[in-house]
Design a protein that fits this description.
The structure is a single chain. It is globular, with a radius of gyration of 19 Å. Helix 5 crosses helix 10. By secondary structure, the protein is mainly alpha-helical. The chain has a two-stranded antiparallel ribbon. The longest helix has 26 residues. A hairpin with a 3-residue loop joins strand 1 and strand 2. It is about 75% helix and about 5% strand. It has 2 domains: about 100 residues; about 130 residues, no CATH class.
Length: about 260
């Protein structure tokens, strides 16, 4: 495929991601929660497929049900019945998994843990939108994450010499990490200055995203390496799967959610 065709495919894939995301963010609830519930559903299926490719007999039903149940529990803390429902999902998924005599308890634990991780982080990102000033806080999380990823890519590609995690993600460098941190802080400061969040809080939040969101990327890279997979899926042309697009953003949502709670 020529460079022009590759660029066109990636541009089309970016539009498929950016446009519905911006629309859902601006519309707010219930559209944002519904949009991200679909993202969690697709992401859970991709995560389970990676587990299977890595040689585990994980259950897609366990991963998906757990992810959606935990997502709902975090997003709707005012619903006290959701915790008992989550307990029933956990017990039911265990029984469902072990109906097959050849399946191991460790595979169920992996399926459940994957759903728990995805649902818990994504739930914070969804809950962020309904906070006071949630549009700005969510915009900060998304904007600073994109800025961090762009800074890490551009600086790492031009100046990168020292590997950050060569066994997990050989392409990442310390120079790119620092570049992403700086650009993330700058984006956070800009968004904070333009809103009620404030310049200094925005800069701090952006710096935290720049410093910590990379771990979401590294977690997925580790899973993909064990599965011998380049991408988590093929849903988004030129960009891979849903998990490839939200791995860092999931951590950013948790970071910004608790910063927002503290500031409030």
């Amino acid at each position: 495929m020529s460079k022009l065709n590759t660029f066109t495919v990636r541009l089309f894939g970016s539009i498929l991601v950016v446009v519905p995301t911006i629309v859902a963010v601006v519309l707010g609830d219930p559209w944002w929660t519904a949009f991200f519930a679909v993202v969690v559903f697709i992401g859970a299926r991709e995560l389970n497929a990676l587990f299977c490719a890595a040689g585990h007999q994980s259950s897609v039903r366990v991963t998906v049900l757990t992810a959606l149940a935990v997502f709902a529990g975090v997003r709707f803390p005012e619903w006290p019945l959701l915790l008992p429902v989550l307990s029933l999902v956990m017990m039911g998924s265990f029984a469902l998994h072990l109906r097959h005599a050849d399946r191991r308890v460790g595979d169920w634990a992996l399926s459940f843990a994957g759903g728990l991780y995805l649902g818990w982080t994504a739930g914070h990102l969804a809950e962020l939108r309904v906070l006071d000033g949630g549009l700005w806080w969510l915009g900060l999380a998304i904007g600073a994450t994109w800025a961090t990823d762009s800074g890490a890519y551009l600086v790492g590609r031009s100046l990168g010499r020292h590997k950050l995690a060569p066994r997990i993600s050989p392409g990442k460098t310390w120079e790119g990490y620092i570049g992403g941190l700086i650009l993330g802080a700058a984006a956070g400061a800009a968004i904070g200055a333009a809103s009620s969040i404030g310049l200094f809080v925005g800069a701090f939040a952006g710096a935290m995203i720049g410093a910590l969101s990379v771990f979401g990327d590294l977690i997925e890279s580790m899973i993909k390496r064990q599965a011998n997979a380049k991408d988590s899926g093929h849903l988004i042309p030129g960009h891979g799967g849903v998990l490839d697009r939200i791995d860092s953003l999931l951590w950013s949502g948790v970071i910004i959610f608790y910063i927002a709670l503290y500031v409030r």
